[in-house]
Each structure stands twice: as structure tokens, then as C-alpha cells.
Amino acid sequence: MDELFKKDGNNYYVQTTHFVKQCKNIEKKITNAKDDEEIYSIINNNVRYVDIFVLNKNGEVLIKSKNCKERSFDLDSLAKNNNDIDTEEYAIKYNLIDKLDNNRYILFSGTLIRTEHSILILIVPIIIFIVLFFILTNKEIVYIKELCLGLKEISKGDLKYRVRIMGKDEISEIGSSINDMTQKLYEYKQKEKKIERDKESFIMNISHDLRTPLTSIIGYVNLLKSKYSCNDDIKKYIDIIDLKAARLNKLINDFFEYNKLNNCEIKLNKINISLNEFMRQVVTGIIPLCNEKNLKIKLLFPEYDIDINIDPDKMFRVMENLLINAIRYCNIGSEIQLSISREENIIIYITNECDHFNKEEINNIFDKFYRGDKARISTKGGAGLGLSIAKSIVELHNGKIFAEYNGKKVCLKLVLPHK
């Protein structure tokens, strides 16, 4: 553009040369035309480049484009004006006259613009476009800067920060995506914190659970080392040691089983069995525990057998854990109901009466290390892994397990697929 501006603005050589060349190409087509109708067609096809007229010797218009209004021209005056062009003007009317045949002339009439003005005509719309572009997009640019500032705040660790959503265009969708991403990061971080708290709680709880029986064992062993004259005392202490050792062994076994279920690939040994008979065998094994608390177990099974494809050893552990939990927290002298139904899936219900239960406990009952009884010295509490182990085994069978609390009744619902 600098080069174009340096050129002499009065020199129309380039424009006129191009104009004449263009006109000659059109004139050649007109000369080869078969009739006036074809000439008329050629004129109309090129009217966007130049105005074209076919004149007689007197300058009267014989053929012209359909939009032209001129009826005649002074040929001498046109020729003279071309020779007396004022090149200081912004634009000039340039005419090219040529003889078409013995009786007709052809006139090409066009407007030529000075070089610097043609550049300005191009530049001005560009400048206007740029100005309008910045005016119209200024709002979006400001919003993009706001999103960038928001991202900087989020990157500092403020996952509660939310960017402002403005409008419903693509940029606002970016803002929504930033908020969604931040929310998910916040939830993930909260989950990580909960996992960390669970680990700390586990270390504290398992340390207490392991230390308590060990302390008892050490104490009673020291007593045995002393000299007792009464063999009955020795037998009593040995029984206590045996009980504490068994409890310690169960805690350790639960811990290792839970870790195995959640951190290793477990292969299930599934077989087809009668669920009715399987449940009766489980119940038979926990009858003594029910008798200790004066509890009754009511079986509500259908008359027909329900076949199921499960790993009986692992599922036995599930049912045993669920029933022991029901016995542990069931009101003394009440009843535990065990029922089975077959709908889209096979559903097992374990229902028992339980006082002093709340919504938080029912929601957390399957969480690892959670125990309904907060007192660590309570004889009710286990390691808090029994129901977590049961849930893991059920999920390995592509099943689900839920807990509901209605009034004074807790219902554990186990859902298993047919196959």
C-alpha cells in the first residue's frame, strides 16, 4: 500500500490500459455476433464492467443495455472530452469509441478513479469494520477476561469460586463448563478428604480394637505366671484369654478380607442352588446367637424353590454378616423377619426392630469402619467392616444392597440378578 501511495495520483495509465483491454475483448465478441439480438445479449452480460452502446453515424443509440436511458451522443464532443481530461479530479468519465462497421460505431463508457482514492475506498470500509468489530465484541472480550481471572482464582485452590454466566452463546457455555469442572473438582477433593479421614479413623479404631484384647491377653498371661493354688482360677483366665484371642483373630481376618475384596481380583465360584434351602442353612447357624437375646426368626419364603446362581461360600458370609448385624442391634425379645421374593430380580429382605436409629446411621451403615454404636468399649461393636465386606461381595455378584428405616424397623434389602 505504501508503494501505491507513492505513485503519481494524476497518472491514469494503468486504469486506462486495463479499461481499453477489457473493451477490446468485448468488442471482438460483438464484431463476431451473428445478429443484433446476440449483440444485445453480449452488452447485457458485460454491463457490470462498462456501459456499451451501438450508435449510427449521427450518434443515435441503436442498441444499448436494458437499464441505460441515453438515446443519443455527440461523437465529436465525446472524443474531445477524452483528450481534455482533468486528472486532478477524483474520478473521470472515460470513453472509448470505435467503428463497428461502415454504418455503426461502438461506444464504451466507464468511470476511472484515481489510484490513491481507490485505495482509500478500500481502506475506509476496513477501518469501519475493525471499529465496529471491537465495539460489538467488546462485551465478549471483557467477559473472556473475566473468565480468565476466574480460572486464576480456581487455580489458586479456591474450588468454591464460580464464574458469572452471561448470555446464552458459546462463550457462556465455556463459563458453564468451567463451573461444572470446578464443582466436580470440589466434590473429588471432598471425597479425598473423606477417604483420608476414614484412613485416620481406621488407624485409630483398629489400633484400639487390637490393643484391647492384646492388653487382656497379656494381663491374664501374667496372672498365669503367678502361682495359683486354685485350678479353677487358672481355667477361668484361660477361657478369657481364649475369648480375647478369638476376637482379635476375627478383627484381623475381617481387615484382611476387606482389603482382599477391594484391592484384588476375586474369582467367584458360582453354582446353581436353591436359595430357600441355602437361607435355611444360614439361619440354622445363627440360632444360638438369637437364643442369647431371646429373639425369634420368622421365615417368609414362597412355597416354590427359587434357583439362583451364586458363589455359596462368599454369599454365606454376606448373609451371616447381615443376620449377625440384625441380631446385634435388634431389640431384646423381638422378632427378625427373613423373606424372599422373585420379581425382575431376586430380593432378600431382613427386617428387625431397633430403637434409637437415625437417618445418618441408615445412610452410613455400609460404609467401611462405621459402627452404629459409637462407644468403642461396647460389646456390640465390631471392627465396622462386616457390612462393608457384605456390600463388596454383593457387588461382585452384580447385585445391590440397601438399608431403610421406617419407624422402629430396620430393613436390609439385598437385590440379586436371576443369573
Number of helices, counting only DSSP H or I runs of 4 residues or more? 11
Major sheet: 5 strands, mixed
CATH architecture label name of the largest domain? 2-Layer Sandwich
Query: Unreliable stretches, pLDDT < 50, 5 or more residues?
Result: 1-10, 373-380
Order of helices and strands: HHHEEHEEHHHEHEEHEEHHEE
The radius of gyration is: 49 Å
Total tally of structural domains: 4
Strand content: 15-25%
Major sheet strand order? 6-8-9-11-10
Gross morphology is rod-shaped
- The CATH class of the largest domain is Alpha Beta
Binned, the helix content reads: 40-55%
- CATH homologous superfamily name of the largest domain? Histidine kinase-like ATPase, C-terminal domain
Structural class: alpha+beta
Terminal CA distance: 80 Å
Subcellular location: Cell membrane
Main location: membrane
Protein name: histidine kinase
Catalytic activity: ATP + protein L-histidine = ADP + protein N-phospho-L-histidine
Fold blueprint:
Layout: H1 2-6, H2 13-31, H3 36-45, E1 51-56, E2 61-64, H4 75-83, E3 91-99, E4 104-113, H5 115-155, H6 170-225, H7 231-263, E5 271-274, H8 275-292, E6 296-300, E7 307-310, H9 312-329, E8 335-342, E9 346-353, H10 359-364, H11 386-396, E10 400-406, E11 409-416
Parallel strand pairs: 6-8
Antiparallel strand pairs: 1-2, 1-4, 3-4, 5-7, 8-9, 9-11, 10-11
Helix pairs in contact: 2-3, 5-6, 6-7, 7-11, 8-9, 9-11
